[in-house]
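Hello Y.,

Per our agreement to keep a running log of every chain we model this quarter, I'm adding this entry. I've kept the format consistent with earlier entries: sequence first, then predicted structure.
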Amino acid sequence: STWGNIRFLPSPHSNHEKKKKKKMFSPTQTGVTFLVMLTVTTSLYYWFPPEPLLNGEANRVGWWGPPNSEINWCEIDYTTFFYVAEPYNTFSSLLYCFVPLIATYLHPLQLLEPRHVLLLVICFAIGIGSALFHGSLRYHMQLLDELPMVHLVLCTLFHLLYRNDTKSHSTVAFLLISISAVVSITMFFTEREHIFHYISRITLILMFSSGFVGIFFLLARSAREADEMLLKQCEPSETVTKPSYFFTQAFLLFVFALVSWVTDILCCALLQSLPINPQLHAFGWHLLSALALYVIFMVLLIHRRLVKGDRVRVGWTFGGYIPYVSVGALKKKL
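Predicted structure for the entry above:
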């Protein structure tokens, strides 16, 4: 327990009181929003990528050789380092590695179940895979970026589907692991033009897009449930930061991250013509989605500890900008 080091007040950058009921986005609103946005991003990434981004600056060749990934981003290749194709996108990818490092630093391991640890490990793998992809622009490195993202989506979806259960659900877990393993192995060890590779690619797309929409639909429900459980623990005059606050943050962060992702692709010529390219893929998509992953982790952890019967509160550190979860024993009401 970290009760001795925590200040049980809302962040100075928020105002969440028990008596104030602010409406959050409903599960349906959330699901429809991301269904539309994922339709756009999937179409641009897999089906109709803009012609200038298919090969990018193919004449610029560095240590990794000519780019052969399915898409080349708006950052011009090999302008700064001979060994790194896209420096901004590469180094900003490492932000995904900081998410699990900060989460494990701020939360004692006894608070984390294997499901939480697995999510954090996969998030770290995304950071490494994404850095290798943007650093090389090679297709197999692209898979090291994409496949962990699908694994993260499936694991998060599993967590949310069984968020209120204490059983292991090993059969469902084994099924998801098997599907992920088959898709991953097939994509790594078959040629890009092979029919099995193409089928696996379609499966990957469907799992990621539908799973992403499902996550936010269920996350909205999870945040509402956690709000209700948390407020039942509070004293009438107590001020708390509710899980729905973190859900709203995650929703808005991912909306702006996806808008940055799309803008970087559709407006690449315009962005490159500016005196300074804003590098929206790096500072829009990577930064904002990494922040969103952390606050999603907060919702998942808060809900799970409440289901386990702990007295949960949110503490703030690093100047009141970074939240963390602290638990203690529930006081019995006489």
